[in-house]
Amino acid sequence: QKEVEQNSGPLSVPEGAIASLNCTYSDRGSQSFFWYRQYSGKSPELIMFIYSNGDKEDGRFTAQLNKASQYVSLLIRDSQPSDSATYLCAVHNYGQNFVFGPGTRLSVLP
Amino acid sequence: DTGVSQDPRHKITKRGQNVTFRCDPISEHNRLYWYRQTLGQGPEFLTYFQNEAQLEKSRLLSDRFSAERPKGSFSTLEIQRTEQGDSAMYLCASSTLQETQYFGPGTRLLVL
Questions:
Q1: For A6-48, what is each residue's pLDDT tens digit?
Q2: Is there a contact between A101 and B42 if contact means CB atoms under 8 Å apart?
Q3: Using a CB-CB distance cutoff of 8 angstroms, which residues of chain B are in contact with residue A33?
Q4: pLDDT tens per residue across span A47-102
Q5: Which end of chain B is more exposed for a tag (fewer CB within 10 A), N or C?
Q6: Do A43 and B45 touch (CB under 8 A)?
């Protein structure tokens, strides 16, 4: 059973701080990694994807991947109350299913 | 709005009834996925299509569930003889071969 694990949270950070969200996965053959944001009652929306080890930055978001440690993270700089949501990590091995983690609830306090 | 649409957005049904959901993917996307999501959990893979071919179906999916994508465009997911445990959000996503999936708004099913 391929697994993706995330801390369920809630993770609370003050407005303007850096939020750090973590994800570990069990399938060493995984090749692509995705972060989705999901507001309550809504469907997931893509934030970022990453394929290679290292960092990938997009605006206030940075994804970090370490395949040797089977670890992917998402950093949100200058957190805003509108960032309060559940963040889903998804992992894909080519030719196989996408596997989603349970999500981490983030609360940004004004 | 990602361009993926689902219908209906909400469905209430009685146990034992059949329900059918529709998904219209982004037009140039040849892959279409169905997921089920319950409260506090991430999306759980059900099945996926590449064009009209159903390439994989979750082992967790009972034979009461069936999906089709007859012309490689829209897809339907049917649940026969619904049970209360089928109550969930049913999500459709589409992608190109480059894998990044875009989700529709979902269909929320409540089985009474």
A1: 988 899 999 999 999 999 999 898 889 999 999 998 999 999 9
A2: yes
A3: none
A4: 999 999 999 999 999 999 999 999 999 999 999 999 999 999 999 887 677 899 99
A5: N
A6: no
